[in-house]
Amino acid sequence: MKSNKGFIPYPFQKRSETQILENSSNLLLEYSKRRSIRHFSDENVDQKIIENLIMIAASAPSGANKQPWTFCAVSNLEIKKKIREAAEKEEYINYHGRMSDEWMEDLAHLGTDWNKEFLEIAPWLIIVFKKSYDVDSLGEKQKNYYVSESVGIASGFLIGAIHEAGLVCLTHTPSPMDFLCRILNRPINEKPWLLIPVGYPSKGAMVPDISRKSAEDVISWFV
Ligand code: IYR
After folding, report:
1. Which 3 state secondary structure label does DSSP give 149?
2. What is the pLDDT of residue 121?
3. Measured in angstroms, how far is the CA atom of residue 170 from the centroid of ligand 1?
4. pLDDT recorded at residue 16
5. Which mutation among 38, 39, 107 tests ligand 1's pocket best, with the greatest number of atoms within 8 A of CB?
6. Is residue 196 a contact partner of residue 158, using CB atoms and an 8 Å limit?
7. What is the distance in A from the centroid of ligand 1 to the CA of 18?
8. Nearest in space to 76 (alpha carbons), one of 183, 170, 179, 194
9. Which of 75, 125, 160, 189 is surrounded by the most beta carbons within 10 Å?
10. Are 199 and 43 in contact (CB under 8 A)?
11. Cβ(197) to ligand 1 under 6 A?
12. Among residues 73, 69, 214, 74, which one has the least CA distance to residue 153?
């Protein structure tokens, strides 16, 4: 028989199917209200809240449980300013020729441009870094697995948790993002994955009038 060494019982508490159906409907409604926000209030968010949210992200599954991520949480005004300036430099180039005409047309309905003032206004910027490998205490490289999948899942946990906790965020991907390694002094094995401003929306914040695909559009059933 296979040994149970290294295993512990999973403390599962079974709920009724009625309860699960109700929970899933409530969660669907809640998640369908989540939107990417580009207009933030400068109202502060307590550091402990940000720590809780990041630790929810860090509870995500990952390849071989390597947890190949680092989350930088920035509220420092000078560092936010540096990030804004560097991001806008790249985005200016993006919006003035680096993005294809097709890409620009696809973005038009979102009303975005190279100005990223939210990077200074939002009280927190969480920058998710992926670790393509780890370095142990002897300086030896340790392999990580399914790194993009793992940080993608952790980022999804983070975005969901931010919404459920009662805050808003934007999944921002200034491109290229190498400037974040320099400004945040990251080691060579960490590469920026997502930049997530977090906080409250500004008074009267507006969002694009867009809709999500229907169940028929996104699900192929095999029942
Ligand atoms: N990174 C740019 C452009 C941009 C790209 C995509 I794909 C978006 O969904 C939104 C914006 C910017 O942040 O403006």
Report:
1. helix
2. 98
3. 11
4. 98
5. 107
6. yes
7. 41
8. 183
9. 125
10. yes
11. no
12. 69
Query: What does the alpha-carbon distance between residue 89 and residue 195 come to, in Å, rounded to a whole number?
Result: 16
Which of 117, 119, 114, 84 has the alpha carbon at shortest distance from 99?
A: 114
CA-172 nearest atom, ligand 1: 13
Phi (first) and psi of residue 163, to 5 degrees: -65, -50
pLDDT tens per residue, range 18-58: 999 999 999 999 999 999 999 999 999 999 999 999 999 99
For range 151-169, the mean pLDDT: 98
Residue 205 main-chain phi, psi, to 5 deg: -55, 140
* Ligand 1 pocket member 174 (CB < 6 A): yes
Query: Which secondary-structure segment (H or E) carries 42?
Result: none
Task: Render the burial of 134-153: b for 16+ CB within 10 Å, e for the rest.
Answer: eeeeeeeeeebeebeebbeb
Cβ of 38 closer than 6 Å to ligand 1, yes or no, is no
Mean pLDDT of the chain: 97
175: Cβ below 6 Å to ligand 1? yes
| Token pair 């890409």 in the structure block, residue | 103
Task: Report CA(185)–ligand 1 centroid distance (Å).
Answer: 25
Q: Is the CB of 132 under 6 A from ligand 1?
A: no
Q: What is the DSSP letter of 40?
A: B
Model pTM score: 0.96
Ligand 1: does its nearest atom lie under 6 Å from the Cβ of 171?
no
| Cβ–Cβ < 8 Å for 83, 119 | yes
